Amino acid sequence: MKVVIAFTDATRSSPDRLLVGHLLRQLSAAGVPLGNITLLCATGLHRPMTSREAVEKLGEEIAQTVRIINHTATEKESLAELGTIDGVPVTVNNLCLQADLLLATGVVEPHQYAGYSGGAKTVAIGCGGEPTIQATHGVAMLDSEGVRLGKIEANPFQEFVRRAGERIGLRYVANALLDHEGAIVACAAGPPTGCMIIWSAWAAHCSRSRWISRFMRPLLAWHRPSRGTCTKPAAPPPTLPYATQPRSSPARRLVLPAANPRRGGGGDWRAKIL
Question: What's the pLDDT score for residue 262?
């Protein structure tokens, strides 16, 4: 049996050392040798993850004993085309289709386009080809009704992620929910859509709770329920607000200081998208 585990790259705060480690232990208990397992780094259009980042992300033991491959969205020979979903091309790394079992990790947090990350996003977008990423992050998609922070139902972006994950053959995911300091609140594994729906609902509930409100509430409260977003992804620099009518007074200036240790993941994704 060939197994592929898609995991998030260095720009995401998903606790993959824990999540991937758990999946590897389960596979080992089922009799799957490490030589039959590939860890596919879901870079999207970001730069490849370095060896040092792999150790930081997965731990030295995993990084040195399991095969790790960086996804390359622009490498056509490594991609497969699976038709379209509502006009959006479904392209994905060939390794995902060659696997007998495809798994993925991720973190469920507010996402400016998908509503919430997690579920099939690591595979559908992170392991997607350039045509898929361009279409899902282009003006036509982002200007669609329902594509916004904190909304997963009737959200064309989220709908594409779910359906693409099913078409690609993603079986199970291991997702984590983090608090405002990056500590793990809870983890769960199961079918992609089910896990994401459960955790996103719980994350929304937590946004109304005092013990985690500093993480969620500022993100959700800022968003105007029509167009435009303002959120902080896991590690890249924040997406600046480009709402047509932001909540701040037009007479005021809003400065959002933010550390940018990873420079948005590198790569040439901005030029390709914008």
Answer: 57
58 contact partners, CB below 8 Å, separation of at least 6: 7, 16, 17, 20, 21, 39, 68
Nearest Cα to 24, choosing from 36, 12, 14, 15?
Answer: 36
- DSSP symbol at 128: B
Euclidean distance between CA atoms 258 and 104, whole angstroms: 29
Which is nearest to 128 in space by CA: 156, 170, 100?
A: 170
Contacts of 2 (CB under 8 A, 6+ apart): 36, 38, 98, 99, 100, 101
Distance CA 212, CA 223 (A): 18
pLDDT at site 18: 95
Q: Residue 55: beta bridge partners? A: none
Instruction: Say what the pLDDT of residue 206 is.
Output: 67
- The encoded tokens of residue 1 equal 């049996």
Contact 128, 6 (CB under 8 A): no
User: With helix as H, strand as E and coil as C, how does 134-176 read?
Assistant: HHHCCHHHHCCCCCCCCCCCCCHHHHHHHHHHHHHCCCEEEEE
| H/E element, 250 | none
What tokens does 33 get? 């040798």
107 beta partners? 176
- 14 token code pair: 């998903």
**Beta carbons of 32 and 24 less than 8 angstroms apart:** no
Which pLDDT value is given to residue 46?
95
| Residue 210 identity (one-letter amino acid) | R
pLDDT at 109: 87
Low-confidence ranges of the chain (pLDDT < 70): 206-274
Cβ–Cβ contacts within 10 Å for residue 188, how many? 17
